Amino acid sequence: MNTATDSRFTVAIGVLAICLAAISPADTWAAEPVKQEKKAKQPSRTRTQALAPKAASPKFASAETAGKAQSCFGEAPMLDKLTPDEGKAGDKVTITGTNFGAAACLRSVSFGPGHPAQFQQTNDNITTTVPSGGKKGLVLLTVTTASGENSKPFLVK
Fold this sequence. Notes:
Helix content is about 15%, strand content about 30%. By secondary structure, it is of the alpha+beta class. It is built from 2 helices and 9 strands, in the order ααβββββββββ. The strands form 2 sheets. Strands 2-9-8-4-5 form a 5-stranded mixed beta sheet, with no helix packed on it. A 4-stranded antiparallel beta sheet has the order 1-3-7-6, with no helix packed on it. Strand 4 and strand 5 (about 115) form a beta hairpin. It has a domain at about 75-155: Immunoglobulin-like (Sandwich), CATH 2.60.40.10.
């Protein structure tokens, strides 16, 4: 057995352990009992990767007025129906569904990745136009809000 190599290996392991101890918080070394709480099952939420537009943050005079501010977070949108479910560039499409939120909370409507469309929202409807220059064929028409996104297939002719 080569003692010179073994001692270098032991020193290297010791240095590694000291470095890990120095950069790790102390509470990670102690095992804590797992706390199990009973929680009501909540519906799964859809995450979105859409970037929120930059806007000036609102200023509130008091905690009372801040508490009455509009909140954009809730349930992800649900798309019920596309009318029509096929069309060519320039055609109007009405999206019927729920959980679109306030008009300020609706982030985008797109016909496939990278093909955003102009839209108008009223209650549980969104009216949009099929964008020009997009991919032809079956695409996903996606509605994105601050709470998530949902899609339905749409045929671009």
